[in-house]
């Protein structure tokens, strides 16, 4: 399965992939550096003070792990399932749907991990984190990718038509804006704040930010458990729904 | 000016490839004129030149007495075009496809609405008028494309393979509608690779192959000239039909040995078949039929038309 | 040309709902989430105005660009490659210029729609500081066309949607992020600043900012207007030659 996906790449696709990596970097420079110059330093919930770019960078990293995983799973997965009938062909061989799904997920993860690693290198070069912290943050981004990859697959099994991608895209953008990415969750009014705190992207941002800024505490353990639970839940849903959709 | 479409030495090249290689055509008012030929013969390329969306590379082309190179929009205003592949707007309703298209011809909105209703009735799509085009069957889409081609009450209707891909019932419905149009005096120009379609609809046709015209006349005259009255089709069980050819010599004016059968061109099929049996050749199956354009094409090019 | 515009409007009647999300809701979310959220931390404001007031006009120009990008990429590609809508139009007595012009006119209609809505909401938030803010409408149309025309030319030149993803990631997104919408481009590296000046959006941002803040853009403003017109004209010629190439073969 993974091998199939790699061989399907053309040269244009590599540019698209590079673009996927470029996106968070552009945001980092625009918002982190450009707007950061207007903001100066920012105080973390624990009281530590960091530069705005160092605050935004881990959020961009977590968001791009999310959007990469979602794009690869929802869009491709839905397309293949609905229109290319690729899975139908594969199902004729003795592979269970969930194995196919996991193959897909693995592919999405390899790609996403490459992006994350490259982004971490940039963070180190810009002195936004230390090499050791970057190394420690890498598995956290992989976990983020898996959690959202699973969420994406579960979503893909629920999509009715291409129009639903507008909804997914908008939801994704809202998450991107409001998940403590650009300002700390404490900046929001009390009610909004708790909604933000409960959102999966916020937990991922909190985890990665804790590691890259060196402010890890018990909350980050909670983040890890949250993401693991999300992944398990979504994989179960995806497996069930796929069986229903494909093995009629 | 007696012909609506007048072409002399018409050539269309794509790069170094010649798709239409110097054809002469005259289409007279009120007739149904056909281009018959296999895949890649250059039928669509010719139709697109006539439709004034593809400038001729060389040669003379006059449509309705005008020059497509100069008067494209003016000519297109009086043409109706049904392209080989439907290009309806599948997101609009059936009716909207007609009304919006009518507006491209500067037809006032009220007139467009009335005409759309008439045409939907004509192609029997009134019940689906307000449903989206996407879920319609292939035959319905084709009928809608034909209706769209009629929305400007054209002098000439160009139909590129109007019934390809349709089931027999849908084809007959389309034929019947086209026949009515012809009776109303509309000039039809169509392409096809179906013999029966050409025989049913065309007053005159040209047989095209490899960008050239290999024969031109009415279907009847072509059959008389290039074929015999009847044809006997024989199938032998042996892999090599050719090995029987010798044993059949003398029975027919002419044979065609195809991979799966042998065709005998004869004046009287039953007589010929009796002779075959007398020679104890015992084919697995035998069929006597009237000669058709298929046979004309086979004779002219040595190939079958639909593979 | 008007009949082509009419066709797109009929079409839009069926699809406007999903476009509301991307062309109106998302910019509004950005205004709230970014302008208010981040703005709260930009305590000094910029050039003597609050961050929100400063950012909103840029965001409106950027929304105009986003709106036309939505229509000048996928639809154009698919009208050539999959839906063949342009070919159907070319068989009617329309010229390539009518087909292109009608579609561009429709894009400008959509720009007017989303920018008007955005202006009303921005006014409700009290971020428009001058009646000159209505000038944002023609400015948005101008910057919209300056982007739409060359992008249509691009979309008419490609055969696969991978190239659209490339355009959006390598051109549209960088332009949106570095054209002075979120922070002044003066703080950019000189090379990047030059790039931002070459691209059309930064001029649209400057002009609409001058309008909503009620600042006289002076002679510079005139040059920026002219420069945007150059983009419109160049893009139109390019797009028209692409349309001719594709439609007349
Ligand atoms: N735009 C084009 N560019 C290059 N070659 C073309 C183009 N259009 C047609 N051709 C070539 O010209 C030849 C004739 O094509 P045309 O479509 O006219 O054939 P046709 O008789 O309509 O065939 P069919 O029955 O398959 O529709 C083909 O070999 C085709 O590949
Ligand atoms: Mg053809």
Automatic annotation (TrEMBL), chain A:
Residues passing through the membrane, by range: 12-40, 52-79, 100-125, 137-159, 171-196, 216-238
Organism lineage string: Bacteria, Bacillati, Actinomycetota, Actinomycetes, Micromonosporales
Originating species: Actinoplanes lutulentus
Protein's UniProt name: Transport permease protein
UniProt cross-references to PROSITE patterns, sorted A to Z: ABC_TM2
Protein family (similarity comment): Belongs to the ABC-2 integral membrane protein family.
Gene Ontology annotations for the cellular component aspect, listed alphabetically: ATP-binding cassette (ABC) transporter complex
Superkingdom: Bacteria
InterPro entries associated with the record: ABC2_TM, ABC2_TM_bact-type, ABC_2_transport, Nod_factor_ABC_transporter
A GO molecular function held by the record: ABC-type transporter activity
Major localisation: membrane
Bilayer disposition of the protein: Multi-pass membrane protein
Domain named ABC transmembrane type-2: residues: 15-245
Keywords: Antibiotic resistance, Cell membrane, Membrane, Transmembrane, Transmembrane helix, Transport
UniProtKB/TrEMBL annotation, chain B:
Stretches assigned to the ABC transporter domain: 5-235
GO molecular function terms attached to this record: ATP binding; ATP hydrolysis activity
InterPro entries in the record: AAA+_ATPase, ABC_transporter-like_ATP-bd, ABC_transporter-like_CS, ABC_transporter_ATP-binding, P-loop_NTPase
Predominant place of localization: membrane
Keyword Transport tagged: yes
SMART domains, sorted: AAA
Membrane topology note: Peripheral membrane protein
Annotated Gene Ontology cellular component terms: plasma membrane
Subcellular location: Cell membrane
UniProt GO BP: response to antibiotic
Chain segments annotated as coiled-coil in the UniProt record: none
Gene3D superfamilies associated with the record: P-loop containing nucleotide triphosphate hydrolases
Family: Belongs to the ABC transporter superfamily.
Identification of the protein by name: Lipooligosaccharide transport system ATP-binding protein
Organism: Actinoplanes lutulentus
Lineage per the UniProt record: Bacteria, Bacillati, Actinomycetota, Actinomycetes, Micromonosporales
From TrEMBL, chain C:
Record's signal peptide: none
Keyword hit for Protease: no
Keywords annotated in UniProt: Antibiotic resistance, Cell membrane, Membrane, Transmembrane, Transmembrane helix, Transport
Gene Ontology CC annotation, any one: ATP-binding cassette (ABC) transporter complex
Organism whose genome encodes this protein: Actinoplanes lutulentus
Transmembrane annotation, as ranges: 20-42, 54-77, 104-126, 132-154, 166-185, 222-240
Primary localisation category: membrane
Subcellular location: Cell membrane; Membrane
InterPro entries, sorted: ABC2_TM, ABC2_TM_bact-type, ABC_2_transport, Nod_factor_ABC_transporter
Recorded GO MF terms: ABC-type transporter activity
Ranges where the ABC transmembrane type-2 domain occurs: 18-246
GO BP term (any one): response to antibiotic
Family note: Belongs to the ABC-2 integral membrane protein family.
Membrane topology (UniProt): Multi-pass membrane protein
Name of the protein in question: Transport permease protein
Domain of life the protein comes from: Bacteria
């Amino acid at each position: 399965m993974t091998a199939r996906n790699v061989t399907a790449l053309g040269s244009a696709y590599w540019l698209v992939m590079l673009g996927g990596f470029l996106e968070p970097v552009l945001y980092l420079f625009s918002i982190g550096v450009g707007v950061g110059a207007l903001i100066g330093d920012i105080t973390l919930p624990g009281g530590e003070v960091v530069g705005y770019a160092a605050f935004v960078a881990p959020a961009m990293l977590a968001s791009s792990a999310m959007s990469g995983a979602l794009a690869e799973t929802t869009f491709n997965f839905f397309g293949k399932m609905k229109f290319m009938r690729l899975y139908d062909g594969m199902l004729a061989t003795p592979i269970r749907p969930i194995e196919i799904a996991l193959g897909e997920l693995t592919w999405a993860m390899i790609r996403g991990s490459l992006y994350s690693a490259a982004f971490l290198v940039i963070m180190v070069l810009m002195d936004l984190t230390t090499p050791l912290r970057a190394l420690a943050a890498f598995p956290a981004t992989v976990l983020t990718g898996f959690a959202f990859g699973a969420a994406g697959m579960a979503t893909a099994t629920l999509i009715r038509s291409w129009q639903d991608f507008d909804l997914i895209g908008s939801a994704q953008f809202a998450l991107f804006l409001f998940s403590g990415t650009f300002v700390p969750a404490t900046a929001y009014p009390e009610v909004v704040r708790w909604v933000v705190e409960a959102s999966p992207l916020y937990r991922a941002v909190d985890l990665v930010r804790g590691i890259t800024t060196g402010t890890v505490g018990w909350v980050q353990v909670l983040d890890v458990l949250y993401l693991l639970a999300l992944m398990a839940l979504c994989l179960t849903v995806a497996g069930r729904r796929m069986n229903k959709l494909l093995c009629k | 000016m007696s012909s609506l479409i007048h072409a002399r030495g018409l050539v269309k090249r794509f790069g170094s490839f010649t798709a239409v290689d110097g054809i002469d055509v005259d289409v007279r008012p009120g007739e149904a004129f056909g281009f018959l030929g296999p895949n890649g013969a250059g039928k669509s390329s010719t139709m697109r030149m006539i439709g004034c969306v593809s400038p001729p590379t060389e040669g003379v082309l006059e449509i309705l007495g005008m020059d497509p190179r100069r008067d494209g929009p003016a000519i297109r205003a009086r043409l109706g075009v049904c392209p080989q592949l439907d290009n309806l707007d599948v997101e609009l309703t059936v009716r909207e496809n007609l009304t919006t298209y009518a507006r491209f011809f500067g037809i006032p909105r009220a007139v467009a609405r009335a005409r759309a209703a008439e045409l939907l009735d004509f192609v029997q799509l009134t019940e689906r008028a307000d449903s989206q085009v996407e879920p319609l069957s292939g035959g319905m889409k084709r009928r809608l494309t034909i209706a769209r081609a009629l929305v400007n009450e054209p002098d000439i209707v160009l139909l590129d393979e109007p019934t390809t891909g349709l089931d027999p019932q849908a084809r007959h419905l389309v034929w019947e509608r086209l026949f009515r149009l012809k009776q109303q005096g509309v000039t039809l120009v169509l392409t096809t690779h179906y013999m029966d379609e050409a025989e049913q609809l065309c007053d005159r046709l040209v047989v095209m192959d490899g960008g050239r015209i290999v024969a031109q006349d009415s279907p009847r005259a072509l059959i008389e000239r290039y074929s015999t009255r009847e044809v006997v089709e024989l199938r032998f069980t042996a892999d090599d039909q050719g090995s029987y050819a010798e044993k059949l010599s003398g029975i027919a004016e002419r044979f065609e040995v195809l991979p799966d059968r042998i065709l005998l061109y004869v004046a009287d099929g039953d007589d010929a078949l009796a002779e075959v049996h007398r020679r104890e050749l015992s084919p697995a199956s035998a069929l006597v039929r009237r000669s058709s354009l298929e046979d004309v094409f086979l004779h002219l090019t040595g190939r079958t038309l639909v593979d | 040309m008007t009949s082509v515009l009419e066709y797109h409007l009929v079409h839009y009647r069926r699809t406007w709902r999903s476009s509301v999300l991307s062309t109106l809701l998302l910019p509004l979310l950005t205004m709230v989430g970014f302008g208010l959220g981040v703005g709260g931390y930009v305590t000094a404001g910029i050039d003597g105005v609050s961050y929100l007031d400063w950012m909103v006009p840029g965001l409106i120009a950027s929304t105009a660009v986003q709106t036309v990008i939505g229509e000048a990429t996928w639809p154009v590609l698919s009208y050539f490659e999959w839906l063949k809508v342009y070919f159907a139009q070319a068989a009617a007595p329309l010229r390539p210029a009518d087909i292109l012009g009608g579609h561009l006119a429709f894009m400008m209609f959509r720009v007017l729609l989303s920018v008007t809505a955005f202006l009303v909401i921005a006014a409700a938030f009290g971020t428009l500081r001058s009646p000159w803010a209505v000038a944002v409408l023609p400015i948005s149309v101008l910057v919209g066309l300056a982007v739409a025309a060359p992008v249509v030319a691009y979309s008419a030149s490609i055969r696969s949607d991978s190239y659209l993803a490339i355009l959006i990631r390598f051109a549209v997104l960088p332009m949106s992020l570095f054209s002075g919408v979120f922070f002044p481009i003066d703080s950019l590296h000189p090379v990047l600043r030059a790039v931002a000046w070459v691209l059309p959006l930064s001029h649209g941002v400057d002009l609409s900012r001058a309008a909503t803040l009620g600042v006289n853009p002076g002679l510079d403003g005139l040059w920026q207007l002219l420069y945007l017109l150059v983009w419109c004209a160049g893009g139109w010629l390019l797009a028209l030659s692409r349309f001719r190439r594709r439609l007349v073969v």
